[in-house]
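Private note to self, pasted from the team thread so I don't lose it. Backbone tokens:
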């Protein structure tokens, strides 16, 4: 497995070794010891991934930007089927990259995974006909703790890959998220 830092150094991009043959492919999705070695190498604490979620969405669905404030979740995000533009926004007030975002194309073709540490808002836009997004979390989901930021916040200026005039498909919740209140 390879691991590289993104433009925001705490957001890591993992590239597993993929073994292809005439039958298809095989890859090791997670080996917690290797995962934690990379976190340590980049100055992050070890994580236990305690919850796994799978979402399926159709083209142009945008989910996010979501986070938990009382019990922040780190997320190891991958795409089982399809392609998404995955975004992480640093909302850690004392971070050097506070208020900055980074985006990556994740797909079942490139096999990449993105580690989004606790203290980030997360969202993604589906680029393919549909996408199945799998994410492993470092803490449990708490319904009353989920918060969000408006996907189109002008302060963040996320460059979502939408065609000119194209609007994403949003949940009622995501349409009404508040603006980012960075200093």
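Design output:
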């Amino acid at each position: 497995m390879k691991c590289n830092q993104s433009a925001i150094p705490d957001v890591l991009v993992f590239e597993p070794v993929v073994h292809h043959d005439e039958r298809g492919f095989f890859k090791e999705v997670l080996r917690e010891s290797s995962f934690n070695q990379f976190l340590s190498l980049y100055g992050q604490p070890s994580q236990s991934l305690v919850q796994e979620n799978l979402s399926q969405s159709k083209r142009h669905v945008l989910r996010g930007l979501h986070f938990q404030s009382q019990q922040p979740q780190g997320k190891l995000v991958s795409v089982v089927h399809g392609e998404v533009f995955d975004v992480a926004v640093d909302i850690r007030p004392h971070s050097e990259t506070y208020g900055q975002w980074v985006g990556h194309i994740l797909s079942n073709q490139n096999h990449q995974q993105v580690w989004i540490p606790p203290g980030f808002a997360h969202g993604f836009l589906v680029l393919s006909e549909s996408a199945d997004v799998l994410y492993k979390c470092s803490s449990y989901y708490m319904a009353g703790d989920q918060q969000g930021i408006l996907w189109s916040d002008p302060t963040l200026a996320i460059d979502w890959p939408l065609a000119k005039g194209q609007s994403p498909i949003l949940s009622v919740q995501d349409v009404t998220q508040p603006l980012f209140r960075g200093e």
